[in-house]
Amino acid sequence: MRKKTPEEISSNMKQVKNKDSKIEILLRKELWSRGLRYRKNDSSVFGKPDIVFKSKKLAVFCDSEFWHGYNWEERINDIKSNKEFWITKIEGNIKRDKTVTTTLEQDDWLVLRFWGKEIEKNTIKCADIIEEKLNSRKKK
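Above: the chain sequence. Below: its structure as tokens.
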């Protein structure tokens, strides 16, 4: 296998979506079909959650396993090339996720995070959790 050029790597990285990913669209379609209306990627909310219910102060994040470090203690050993870059990048994402969650919770937000595989396998269950939390929260 030949090594990719920096230009090829850059091109590949530019294709990685940071919004409107497959998992986000899957969950949003289920929520929309239930009549639940939301904002997406609302930059006025700290951390720019994937799905936001502002009046209920509920923020939903759809985290992909690779970028957000699912099972990181084991997965860290799967990285074979450019280890220093990827470990720093993913650990930075994990740290940022924790900061975002803590900051929002300190401002009375309820934060829900779902892993991509969880959304793909159990979209209805994830939407049920969101709907249940929305129904239990008073209007803020």
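The first strand starts at residue 39 and ends at 40.
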